[in-house]
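Justification of resources, computational component.

The compute hours requested in this renewal are based largely on the per-chain cost of generating structure records like the one below. Each record pairs the submitted sequence with a full structure-token output. That output is archived, and it is also reused by downstream analysis tasks.
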Amino acid sequence: MTDAQRQVDKNMAAPKLTRKELIERLRLEFPEASHAIGDYEIEDVWHGGCRLRLRYDRRALRPGGTLVGAAMMSLGDFAMYVAVLSAIGWVPLAVTTNLTINFLKKPAARDLLAEARLIKLGKRLAVGEVAIHSDGEDDLVAHVTSTYSIPV
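The structure output for this chain reads:
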């Protein structure tokens, strides 16, 4: 997503939860998870989107010096969860119903950044995409599309 597109998205509506509120809720409701307090950092949140960072950890390397795909999938899934919550508010039981990932390039040995945006938000389903790249590089290392189910 370009800076201009992100600015348009940010100006459309305020997020239902601020970055600070979201981090506090995640810490309270999911203390066993590392989402907001461990390996992930929520850098920015706007209505229907977010930017997250997954800190580099050499323990997530696989043979050949690349990061394991599961780390990128987890980052993409969590980014979509945050994007959904930014648009609908605190609905912790929203769940992934579909996630597709395309691994495009070997990621560099550094932090990964994920930028998520919702494409369609309905009453029961949210569809979005996540662009993942290595910190300091423009080329995508992975692209995620995902659908979330929203409990009514």
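The radius of gyration is 15 Å. The mean pLDDT is 88.
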